[in-house]
Design a protein that fits this description.
Strands 2, 12, 15, 16, 18, 19, 22, 23 and 24 form a 9-stranded mixed β-sheet that branches. The protein has a 5-stranded mixed β-sheet with strand order 3-13-10-6-7, with no helix packed on it. A 4-stranded mixed β-sheet has the order 1-17-21-20, with no helix packed on it. Strand 22 and strand 23 form a beta hairpin. It is elongated. Helix content is about 0%, strand content about 30%. It folds into 2 domains: about 160 residues, Immunoglobulins (Immunoglobulin-like, Sandwich); about 130 residues, Immunoglobulin-like (Sandwich), CATH 2.60.40. The protein is mainly beta. It comes from Geodermatophilus maliterrae. This is LPXTG cell wall anchor domain-containing protein.
């Protein structure tokens, strides 16, 4: 049995996203440069108003880690036998009532399917499918004019969410697998995709208005999986296993270098981490990943790291007055250094300000995420 690379296929799941999730690219939705400011502590509730579900073919690429990145050594096809039954086992919260299953068969490996089978009524080359409306979709693989080693693309479309999930949830509707069709005897296969649940804070995924969190280097950020969070519908009861990464962005919102994994302290439904000391002022993305019983939850947050507040400048020392004139120190007057000393009783400080860009890993908004295509981007995460 041969192993084929996937480079000729335009797969929904690509290779990996911004070094932290295998399904994503970062897209900016507005950008402004930060100004000097201070944010001694930041609270970030994890209670998204929109969650996008996307099924991930782990049998092709390996299971997702806590940040949604595939763990396999490299994408390969699933070997199946002509005429056998192939079962796709889906989470119970995905509704398969209106699912349509298609199988494209590429006999010569040139990237073009010679035959396309479909479960849609009236299809010229029908595909036998049972289990619609349940979590187990059984597909009888065709056995007409078999070509050993032909490549197959199995697609399930029309997946929606059930009432087991709240109104915050939407499915991108599709799961796609690569197969290698063989004439040799092979055991029946059961495929069980994992599900990436993508959301953002504090703005929703589809928000066109940036709403960054502002902090300074050294700021402690507290995450809170609130009691009413929609993420609890995925089976999350606390923040056990949560991971956080910091991704630097350039002035146009594109990632710069690899994301940096941050140290996280978890206490039940809350977790804290610190923006590393020495982090330069600018725009960043926070990526907050956590395993769920059926896959991974990935929350994105727009972050602006502001320059630290300038230390107050001390008034210049008092200058001795001529013996004929008694004068006070240089209070409230401009010294020859060009610095104005604060008047008695005044205080100095700066106001935290700034805006940034909303990071959308894998989606760029729900409309983009539903297109079934995801570009490949850089991989890798550095630890601090």
């Amino acid at each position: 049995m041969s192993t084929h690379t996937l480079s000729r296929h335009h797969h929904r799941w690509g290779t990996a996203r911004v070094g932290v999730v295998g399904l994503a690219v970062m897209a900016s939705m507005g950008l402004a440069m930060p100004s000097a400011g201070a944010a001694p502590a930041v609270a970030l509730p994890l209670e998204p108003g929109e969650v996008l579900l996307s099924a991930f073919p782990v049998e092709n690429a390996g299971a997702m880690d806590a940040m949604g990145e595939p763990t396999g050594a490299g994408p390969t096809e699933v070997a199946v036998q002509y005429g056998d039954t192939l079962t796709v086992q889906l989470p119970s919260y995905l509704d398969t009532t209106d699912v349509v299953v298609m199988l494209g068969r590429d006999d010569d490996g040139n990237g073009s399917d010679e035959t396309t089978y479909s479960s849609e009524p009236g299809a010229p080359t029908p595909l036998g499918v049972t289990g619609e409306g349940t979590s187990s979709i059984a597909i009888t693989l065709p056995n007409n004019a078999p070509v050993d080693g032909a490549l197959g693309t199995l697609t399930l479309e029309g997946l929606t969410t059930t009432t087991a999930l709240g109104p915050e949830y939407t499915s991108d509707g599709v799961v796609e697998y690569l197969l290698e069709l063989n004439t040799e005897a092979l055991a029946d296969e059961t495929l069980e995709p994992e599900v990436l649940a993508l959301s953002s804070e504090p703005c929703d995924l589809t928000s066109a208005t940036p709403c960054p969190v502002t902090a300074t280097a050294g700021t402690v950020v507290t995450l809170d999986l609130t009691a009413g969070s929609a993420l609890r519908d995925l089976g999350l009861t606390d923040l056990t296993g949560v991971e956080v990464a910091l991704q630097a962005l350039d002035a146009t919102g594109n990632p710069v270098g690899a994301p940096v994994a941050l140290t996280v302290q978890v206490t039940g439904s809350t977790a804290t981490f610190e923006i590393p000391a020495g982090t330069a002022a600018g725009s960043y993305g926070l990526l907050i990943g956590q395993p769920t019983p059926t896959g991974v939850s990935l929350v994105l947050a727009d972050l602006v790291v502001a320059a630290p507040a300038a230390a107050p400048v001390a008034a210049p020392p008092a200058t001795a007055a001529p013996s004929t004139q008694a004068v006070a120190g240089n209070v409230g007057l401009r010294s020859n250094t060009g610095v104005t000393a604060p008047a008695t009783g005044s205080s100095t400080g700066t106001v935290a300000a700034g805006a940034g860009l909303l990071l959308l890993a894998g989606a760029g908004g729900l409309a983009v995420a539903r297109t079934r295509r995801r570009p490949a981007v850089e991989t890798g995460t550095d630890e601090v």
